[in-house]
Write a structure and sequence with these properties.
By secondary structure, this protein is mostly helical. 65% of the residues lie in helices and 0% in strands. The protein is built from eight helices and no strands.
Length: 168
C-alpha cells in the first residue's frame, strides 16, 4: 500500500466510510419511541418531554463532528455542477467500496473524472471537519489537480513570443 500524500487523508477517508453507520445511529437517536406506559405508577413510566429529549440527543462529540462534516460535504456536493453524478460516484466508490473503473463504466465517465470527483469530496470533508475556508479548499484542490499557478519555463516564453511575432 502506498503512503498517502497528506497525513489527513486516511482520517478523512475513515470518516467517510463510517458515515453510513453513524447516519443510522444518528437517526435512531432522533427517533421518537412510541410505547405505552406499563409501569402502573401514574407518571412513573418515563419522561414527560420526549420531543425535547430527542432534540438534544446526539452522538459522542468526536463522532458527531465527523458525522456533521460528511453531512455538510454531501450538502455542498448536491449544489455543485454535475451534482447527481458526483453523489453517485461518492456513494459507489466510498460508501460501497466499488472500484474506480467500475464507477466510470457505470456512469459513462472517464476514470480520471471519477478520481477527481472522489478526491474533491474527500478534501471537502476534511475542510468541513477543520472549518477551513473556501479559499483553503480551493488551494488544496488546485494544488493536487495541477492547476496551481506556475511560472512558465524559458522555452515556453520563447515559444509564445515566436507565435506572437510570426502571427501563427
Amino acid at each position: 500500500m502506498s503512503k498517502p500524500r497528506y497525513n489527513w487523508w486516511p482520517y478523512a477517508l475513515n470518516m467517510i466510510r463510517d458515515y453510513p453507520s453513524r447516519k443510522m445511529e444518528f437517526d435512531a437517536l432522533h427517533e421518537q419511541k412510541i410505547t405505552a406506559n406499563t409501569s402502573g405508577i401514574p407518571g412513573g413510566g418515563g419522561s414527560y418531554r420526549t420531543v425535547e429529549q430527542i432534540a438534544i440527543r446526539q452522538l459522542p462529540t468526536g463522532e458527531q463532528e465527523e458525522f456533521e462534516a460528511v453531512d455538510k460535504a454531501l450538502s455542498r456536493t448536491r449544489v455543485m455542477s454535475c451534482a447527481n453524478e458526483r453523489i453517485q460516484v461518492v456513494k459507489w466508490t466510498l460508501f460501497r467500496n466499488y472500484r474506480i473503473s467500475d464507477a466510470a463504466l457505470r456512469f459513462h465517465i472517464s476514470e480520471r473524472t471519477v478520481r477527481r470527483y472522489r478526491y474533491q469530496f474527500i478534501a471537502l470533508v476534511w475542510c468541513m471537519y477543520k472549518n477551513k475556508s473556501e479559499e483553503e479548499y480551493r488551494e488544496i484542490i488546485n494544488q493536487d489537480l495541477g492547476n496551481e499557478k506556475r511560472t512558465p519555463s524559458a522555452e515556453e516564453l520563447l515559444y509564445n513570443a515566436t507565435i506572437k511575432i510570426d502571427g501563427r
